[in-house]
Amino acid sequence: MKEVLNQLSNIKLSSELRRGLEKESLRVTPEGYISEKPHFESLGSALTHPSITTDYSEALLEFVTPIYNDPREMLKYLEELHLFTLKQMGDELLWANSMPCLLKKEESIPIANYGSSNVGKMKTTYRKGLKARYGSAMQAISGIHFNFSLTDQFFEEFQKVRENKENFQTFKSARYMNATRNIHRFSWLIPFLFGSSPAICRSFLNKAPEDYNLQEFDDKGTLYFEGATSLRLSNLGYTNSSQNKIKVCYNEIESYAKGLREAITTSEPLYEKIGLEEAGDYKQLNTNILQIENEYYSGVRPKRVTQSGESPTNALLSRGVEYIELRSVDVNAFSPIGIDLEQVLFLDVFLVFCLLKDHDGLCPERTKRFRENQELVARYGRKENLVLFDGKEEISATEWAKISFAEFLEVAAKLDAETGKSEYTEAVEKFSKTIKDTSGLYSERILTEMQNSGKCFFSSTLSRSHKTAEKLRASELSKDAEEKLVQQALASHQKQKEIEASDKTDFTTFLNEYFKQNIEA
Predict the structure, then answer these.
(1) Rounded CA gap, 160 and 39, in Å?
(2) Measured between alpha carbons, how far is 102 from 259 in angstroms, rounded to an integer?
(3) Three-state DSSP class for 488?
(4) 413 near 402, Cβ under 8 Å?
(5) How far is the C-alpha of 171 from the C-alpha of 168, rounded, in Å?
(6) Cα separation of 395 and 315, whole Å?
């Protein structure tokens, strides 16, 4: 890593960094039930609002920040979204953990509604398909997506340093795809360091705990694995074994898009049984392995902002990779807004490292082994003597982490030298201490608090959710910030009306036209 950083000595990386956040938050009642109320009108249209929308459910809010160079400004904006939203929510709370508790049956979780336009119907129908295929419980899990990029100016300079003669966008996309391969390789570090869901409610399961080999943490319905860090990222969480047949290759854009397109255009007998329509109402978008690209569960996605009606793979193939979406970050239970500055600084370092460090091809077998690493760490990451696969051989997780952190510190040192501060190094050093002393990990702190208080996962998280809401509601939202969000909400409702009025075709024709672009000539 030192060699490549020396090559970049004249490039100020810290000035070229860009990042944004998508943070999901589940609305619950004061008693901890998942809210059955629709998305609050005062928050704007979930279809068109740029910063406040919904994910799977009406109750699953999603806060989206713009792209920032300054991480503090990004976190400030995320906090403003929380403050504004809580003002509109009455006595409802934002659940302070990635893993929900299902005090009622799954059927009570309301699917998100995006209005009567074709694009709105498509979004809602997609979610109906998710419910039919995987159930609502998994879709109520929340997390944080970290969107990372570097400016074109950086890539232009980096291309010169590498003496690369390819087309600029080809080079840029190749470096982003290189980063995705490294993220897969080092993906286990994210649940280890940031995992904040080490236990779950018995109510979340649709099978007996022994079917998952889960242990009882207490006699009040809390289940866990000894050493667990992030059950959200385990096979209990936001994953699905039926997608194992999908062969997605991260070696280049073309192979990545090909794997997804094959899944989107290949019928799946299991989903054929669900059926496509009933009494003229769509149950799912199609009966294929994937309805659309977003259904593929992966810890990282290479992405490009799509144009109206354009599929994600078409956008990538026509204009290349624009940024990387890291999807494996749990909601931090110890931060009122779900993530803090030290995490952001570490992720900057981690993702710069992944982009700069050369990685050879990622074959299906390696990808499978790296996913197994993540599963092991999600379930047992805090256990001693854990052994993982580093791409060539098995290695102690502790030793691998030490080797990795040595290189992270080199990246952090460059960023700090540029800014004249020491915050990047301090953040990396803070998290490096948890390799030996796991008591500082969010996952272990949650379990320790539960044990000391005698509260189960549900009671502990509900209590934390109340405290977080009280703290945020006690904070002041500036008049300018509030007025801007009020105007955005009003404008989003108007934009939704315009979209609904502009539709020229029926929904079936709209879907057929959309999916035509995924059929290769």
Answers:
(1) 49
(2) 35
(3) helix
(4) no
(5) 5
(6) 39
What does the pLDDT look like over 186-216, one tens digit per residue?
Answer: 999 999 999 999 999 999 987 778 878 899 9
Instruction: Provide the total of helices (H) and of strands (E) in the chain, helices listed first.
Output: 19, 14
Residue 172, by phi and psi: left (phi above 0), alpha (psi -120 to 50) or beta? alpha
Q: What is the number of other CB atoms lying within 10 angstroms of the CB of residue 361?
A: 11
Count of domains forming the chain? 1
Is 1 strand, coil or helix?
coil
Provide Rg for the chain, Cα atoms. 22
Output the CA torsion 187→25→58→111 (10° steps).
30
Q: Is residue 521 part of a domain?
A: no
Instruction: Determine the distance from the C-alpha atom of residue 263 to the mean position of all C-alpha atoms in its chain, rounded to a whole number.
Output: 21
Is 245's pLDDT higher than 90?
Answer: no
Identity of the residue numbered 448: T
CATH code assigned at 156: 3.30.590.20
pLDDT at res. 521: 40
Q: Tens of pLDDT along 307-322?
A: 988 999 999 999 999 9
Q: Say what the pTM is.
A: 0.96
What is the span of the domain harbouring residue 447?
2-516
Is 456 domain-assigned? yes
Name the residue with tokens 């549900």.
458
Can you list the alpha helix ranges (DSSP code H) found in 388-456?
A: 397-419, 423-432, 442-453
d(Cα 261, Cα 263) in Å, to the nearest integer? 5
Angle between helices 423-432 and 397-419 (to 10 degrees): 170
Quick count: other Cβ atoms within 10 Å of Cβ 113? 18
* Cβ(125)–Cβ(282) below 8 Å: yes
Please check whether residue 82 is in contact with residue 63, taking contact to mean a CB–CB distance below 8 angstroms.
Answer: yes
Identity of the amino acid at 318: S
Task: Count the alpha carbons within 13 Å of 90 in the hemisphere toward its beta carbon.
Answer: 10
